[in-house]
């Protein structure tokens, strides 16, 4: 069984990922011939039905692409439309957006760390099974996740598909007194986040490394979340408006996600490990200290260790939220006017899973004539497939059951969001 | 122990995420029901039949139109969760468009896709026992429904409009006070009137209330200065209408 030279390994429905996908691996004559991360999440055609909508509508509509990171969609949409209209929001509104976004980073990262990823390292099928043995750990994770959701509810109205975001700012801004109770909760969350870093740092990380180019937004002086320009580990630097000049997408038959490459350079990776590798100098002293104590070093090229990066970024997001609450000054107006004009606009922000790019073209009446959305999971798909091919090649002596299980875990390292990428996964290993 | 299964069709994952977002109640729920199939949360899966199935998402592919029948056959109680499952979701905006043209806008090789011309609610294909509306659903309604079914009573789910929730929450009426267009009078309650509490008109994400007064609503929206096409777009975002829909059932 373990010496068959031709095999087909199939994981028809990947568990503990967001959305629906599968993986196929074909092995022939002892060589990995093909690895395909299949995305069968049905297409929903957002870019098509955004056409003909008013320029104020994309934040609410694109939020519906993903229930886990709706704020990322709202923020990239606002950034792109405001860019088209030549409007820059005042710093007080930008700060409140960053605070809301911190809530989403906390909620999404903690969901992945505790409920989707950690069970793999500990040998459980789910966090609910883990809770039977270690209820305290899961309760800590849920409490930390709730701090993120509470922040989103206070500023956004609700955690999934917040209602308070609009082009130009917000519908209603919170009074400082509304944020005070959150500050207390975030103090407790900061301790829980630091405990989380120490906990995941103790997991066993298989020695597996990649050499992909990595891409993230960067901003001098702080860890880029809702604004910045793009840099890569290969030395590329460009403004968000030039994204499509550098990133090319292709449509492959096995996926309802489009695969992205860097023009003339090939596959690349975006997400927490890329951000950490490119921007760690801008982390807070406390987050840096936690990263160092966790043994992260200056870069993260072992996908398994991404769980540690997520935990460090959670520390950062909690601390940054506290800082933003302490510095909060209610904007004089909840939103600035954004009169439309015939123009194209570009926006990118750091969704929990990586750089999320939007482009809109508007006509003179303020209607969207063209929309383009490039989500992080689609950008990562080629790099993930490359990793899986090397991963499987090194483990062909495993039986199908164990190999399949390990491939699933390898995929979860990337926290793929298939709902986002579908326009994005099933595991089959074919040893024919 | 009662078994619970969670299923996904075309959707954003947000409604099933609502269950994982019940941070204070999730472990208590897991103590009282056996989660037999919930791929987003666990890789363990038990074969049906299931006592309760929660179904998220709309039917948009021929394969999904077949799969929902299999799920119905395995489920004692089937509950649809969210705007996609109950009404088709925002992706039902395709229903009045040319899907081949849509596919060509988004995908370089539309021939790789296997998609239906319409996005249709689950109830257009199989019998549904309860519907939880909203984009996303309300966590409280989800817990109420699971809790009620565990003790064998009917879930208490409102059919009145968002206006009642505004009154209960002491919200100032955003139409009267600020001239904001609002779908509250014709939209099903359940969210807790969040948008008006944020000085924004309701945009209808819970779908139409029972017996909506559409004419009065149109006049109300016009009174805020909205034009016909803007009104139509606002009303149709989460309510693709009740025209006969395609599908295989």
In brief:
The complex is a heterodimer of chains A (432) and B (249). Chain A has a single domain (7-206, 327-430), classed as Orthogonal Bundle (Cytochrome-c3 Hydrogenase, chain B).
Structural description of this entry:
The complex is a heterodimer of chains A (432) and B (249). With 432 residues, chain A is of the alpha+beta class. Chain A has a single domain, classed as Cytochrome-c3 Hydrogenase, chain B (Orthogonal Bundle). In chain A, the strands form five sheets. In chain A, strands 1, 2, 3 and 15 form a four-stranded mixed β-sheet that branches. A four-stranded mixed β-sheet of chain A has the order 8-7-6-11. In chain A, helix 4 crosses helix 5, helix 4 runs antiparallel to helix 11 and helix 7 runs antiparallel to helix 11. About 2% of the residues of chain A have low confidence. Chain B is an alpha/beta fold. Chain B has two domains: 150 residues, Rossmann fold, CATH 3.40.50; 75 residues, no CATH class. In chain B, 36% of the residues lie in helices and 12% in strands. Chain B contains eleven helices and five strands; from the N terminus they run E-H-H-E-E-H-E-H-H-E-H-H-H-H-H-H. Chain B has a five-stranded parallel β-sheet. In chain B, strand 3, helix 3 and strand 4 form a beta-alpha-beta unit. The C terminus of chain B is likely disordered. The chains are: A alpha+beta (432), B alpha/beta (249).
Helix percentage range of chain B: 25-40%
Quaternary status = heterodimer
Class derived from helix and strand content of chain B: alpha/beta
Number of helices of chain B: 11
CATH-defined architecture of chain A: Orthogonal Bundle
Low-confidence parts of chain B lasting 5 or more residues at pLDDT below 50? 243-249
């Amino acid at each position: 069984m373990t010496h068959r030279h031709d095999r087909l390994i199939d994981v028809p429905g990947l568990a503990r990922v967001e959305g629906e996908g599968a993986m196929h691996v074909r092995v022939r004559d002892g060589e990995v011939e093909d690895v395909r991360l299949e995305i069968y999440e049905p297409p929903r055609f957002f870019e098509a039905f955004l056409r003909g909508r008013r320029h104020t509508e994309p934040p609410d509509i694109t939020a519906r692409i993903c229930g886990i990171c709706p704020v990322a969609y709202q923020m990239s949409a606002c950034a792109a439309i405001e860019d088209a209209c030549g409007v820059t929001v005042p710093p007080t509104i930008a700060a409140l957006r960053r605070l809301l976004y911190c809530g989403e980073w906390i909620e999404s990262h903690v969901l992945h760390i505790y409920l989707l990823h950690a069970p793999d390292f500990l040998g459980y099928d789910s966090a609910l099974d883990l809770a039977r043995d270690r209820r305290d750990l899961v309760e800590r994770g849920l409490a930390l996740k709730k701090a993120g959701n509470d922040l989103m509810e206070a500023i956004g109205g609700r955690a999934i598909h917040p209602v308070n975001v609009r082009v130009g700012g917000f519908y209603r801004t919170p009074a400082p007194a509304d944020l005070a109770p959150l500050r207390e909760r975030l103090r407790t969350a900061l301790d829980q986040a630091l405990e989380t870093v120490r906990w995941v740092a103790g997991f066993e990380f298989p020695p597996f490394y990649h050499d992909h180019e990595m891409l993230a937004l960067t901003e001098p002086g702080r860890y880029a979340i809702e604004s910045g320009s793009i840099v890569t580990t290969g030395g590329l630097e460009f403004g968000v408006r030039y994204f499509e000049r550098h990133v090319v997408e292709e449509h492959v038959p096995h996926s309802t996600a489009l695969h992205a490459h860097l023009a003339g350079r090939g596959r690349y990776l975006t997400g927490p490990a890329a951000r950490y590798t490119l921007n760690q100098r801008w982390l807070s002293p406390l987050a840096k200290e936690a990263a160092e104590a966790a043994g992260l070093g200056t870069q993260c090229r072992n996908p398994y260790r991404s769980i540690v990066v997520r935990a460090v970024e959670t520390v950062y997001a909690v601390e940054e939220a506290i800082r933003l609450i302490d510095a909060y000054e209610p904007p004089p107006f909840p939103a600035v006017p954004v009169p439309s004009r015939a123009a194209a606009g570009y926006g990118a922000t750091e969704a929990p899973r990586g750089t999320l790019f939007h482009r809109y073209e508007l006509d003179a009446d303020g209607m969207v004539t063209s929309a383009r959305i490039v989500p992080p999971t689609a950008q990562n798909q080629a790099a993930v497939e490359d990793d899986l091919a090397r991963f499987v090649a090194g483990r062909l002596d495993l039986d199908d059951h164990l190999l399949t299980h390990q491939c699933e875990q390898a995929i979860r390292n990337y926290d793929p969001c298939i709902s986002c990428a579908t326009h994005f996964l099933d595991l089959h290993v074919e040893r024919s | 122990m009662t078994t619970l299964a969670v299923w996904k069709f075309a959707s954003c994952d947000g409604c099933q995420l609502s269950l994982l977002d019940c941070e204070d109640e999730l472990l208590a729920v897991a103590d009282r029901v056996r989660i037999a199939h919930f791929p987003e949360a666990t890789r363990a899966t038990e074969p049906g039949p299931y006592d309760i199935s929660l179904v998220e998402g709309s039917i948009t592919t021929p394969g999904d139109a077949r799969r929902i029948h299999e799920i119905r056959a395995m489920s004692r109680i089937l509950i649809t969760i969210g705007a996609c499952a109950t009404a088709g979701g925002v992706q039902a905006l395709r229903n009045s468009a040319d899907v081949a043209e849509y596919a060509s806008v988004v995908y370089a090789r539309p021939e790789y896709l296997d998609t239906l011309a319409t996005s249709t609610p689950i109830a257009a294909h199989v019998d549904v026992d309860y519907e939880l509306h909203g984009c996303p659903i309300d966590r409280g309604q989800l817990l109420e429904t699971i809790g009620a079914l565990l003790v064998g009573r009917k879930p208490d789910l409102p059919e009145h409009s968002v206006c009642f929730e505004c009154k209960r929450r002491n919200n100032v009426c955003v139409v009267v006070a600020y001239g904001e267009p609002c779908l509250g009078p014709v939209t099903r309650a359940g969210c807790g009137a969040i948008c008006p509490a944020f000085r924004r008109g309701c945009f209808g994400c819970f779908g139409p209330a029972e017996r909506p007064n559409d004419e009065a609503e149109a006049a109300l929206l016009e009174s805020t200065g909205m034009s016909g096409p803007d009104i139509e777009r606002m009303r149709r975002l989460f309510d693709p209408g009740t025209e006969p829909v395609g599908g295989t059932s």
